[in-house]
């Protein structure tokens, strides 16, 4: 499986890549929204983990563009954020994401586990 | 609650004093001119004019002109007004009555009720006294010198009275302004506090997630095995970071509630399944076997319309608390229902609660102890958030206990719909 993680924090990218790589998945990381959009088009990942608060292009804009572009609109997106009040299960679905996870409450191993569960349903 | 007005400057005092001298001189001069422009009736017109002017000064000049301009305007107006009035009053005085009415009425409206009443009473007493003295022929009318002195004294008295009235009006205005300013600054402060809380929490959340995430990875020995000492250290970091993440999460919940970004989304919920699920989940994390958790349910528990996610948080929180404060014994989770409401109760055999703490339990950061004795079992926000959630549903939450070491009960009641 190919996982794309988009987050403006290097440490977060490194951290959430670990359990996926340990399970033999390929992880691509993008440090901002623009790069993330490019990678989503070029590399065709199986799932995208997307942060919301990012400079220049924020996560919600990235999500919108992903859903507008025919080449990326089928890729499942999971919001991985620390902004619980901006997001909820319903809001995430409304925007076209298949789920949302709060970083501070979900350790890397838990995120990997939940991502796989979400993809399976 | 007297508000002090700023003390007058040296110039203000000099000008005030000169005004009084000028007023006295003009009155005295006019009174004893051969044409006698101040007759008995004209005295009253003049007095009315002074009252009206004092009020106009407060209502217009004081409000709309700067301090320096006010000073000049007032001094000039004081002199001109008295001169012009005396001159005009010779023949047309009575028409000015109509004009006096407007500023006096306006002032009465902007005065506080008690002051308006006092002034009204004082004015009525003056009129009554005048009628009485006239009827008794006590008022001097025959001898011009006495008569003139009486008129001057009367006018000066009314002038002083009006000046005091103007000062009182200014004081009231200052009080109102002060109260308004205080209210504004309180509002701003509250808004800043909210923003501060939500910003700091967010800023804290990212590093906390990173510490929690990496320590969990180390702990799971993702990068090679750890020595027992390393494992201990990593475990400490991990547990602390988890606690910190919980605390920041709860602070964020509170700031969200206070900012009004907290919404209850109700849907029909099967309470039985929910309670069973929570118990299963909490059994999983229960530290030891000396405490048992029992779920006692009635034969029938109809679905309730609640925000399942949030009520679940409340029940989980209450059970978690019960576990924290019970070292051995039973924790019993029960639910009851009538036609209108559903009651959920968590009863434990733990340390109990002194009665004096019942009220404070549901306030933020209350942990049943003084800050010096705080343990590290929780964040001190759980019961507060629970209260906010239950109250948002239109329900109530409370605690019961027979005292220390006699266990405690936490109960909440929610409307079924």
Give the distance, in angstroms, between the N- and C-terminal Cα atoms of chain A: 16 Å
Series of H and E elements of chain A? EHEHEHEHEH
**Percentage of residues in helical conformation of chain A:** 40-55%
Radius of gyration of chain B: 39 Å
Biggest beta-sheet profile of chain B: 5 strands, mixed
Number of helical runs of chain B? 10
The structural class of chain B is: alpha+beta
Q: Tell me the fraction of residues in β-strands of chain B, as a range.
A: 5-15%
Number of helices of chain A: 5
CATH architecture annotation name of chain A: 3-Layer(aba) Sandwich
User: Would you tell me the overall average pLDDT of chain A?
Assistant: 88
Content-based structural category of chain A = alpha/beta
Low-pLDDT sequence parts of chain A: none
- Tell me the number of structural domains of chain A: 1
Beta-strand percentage range of chain A? 15-25%
User: Would you tell me the overall average pLDDT of chain B?
Assistant: 75
Keywords:
heterodimer, A: 121 residues, alpha/beta, Rossmann fold, 5-stranded parallel beta sheet, 5 strands, 45% helix, B: 417 residues, alpha+beta, 5-stranded mixed beta sheet, two-stranded antiparallel ribbon, 63% helix, 10% strand, elongated
Give a written overview of the molecule:
The complex is a heterodimer of chains A (121) and B (417). With 121 residues, chain A is of the alpha/beta class. Chain A has a single domain (2-120), classed as 3-Layer(aba) Sandwich (Rossmann fold), CATH 3.40.50. Chain A has helices at 10-22, 33-43, 59-68, 89-95, 108-120, and strands at 2-6, 26-30, 47-50, 77-81, 99-102. Chain A has a five-stranded parallel sheet with strand order 2-1-3-4-5, with helices on both faces. In chain A, strand 4, helix 4 and strand 5 (99-102) form a beta-alpha-beta unit. Chain B is of the alpha+beta class and 417 residues long. Chain B has helices at 10-31, 40-64, 67-92, 96-110, 113-135, 144-219, 228-258, 271-285, 308-324, 382-392, and strands spanning 267-269, 291-296, 304-306, 329-337, 341-348, 396-401, 408-415. In chain B, helix 1 (10-31) runs antiparallel to helix 6 (144-219) and helix 9 packs antiparallel against helix 10 (382-392). Chain B starts with 9 loop residues before the first helix and ends with a strand. The chains are: A alpha/beta (121), B alpha+beta (417). The interface between A and B is medium-sized, with 21 and 20 residues.
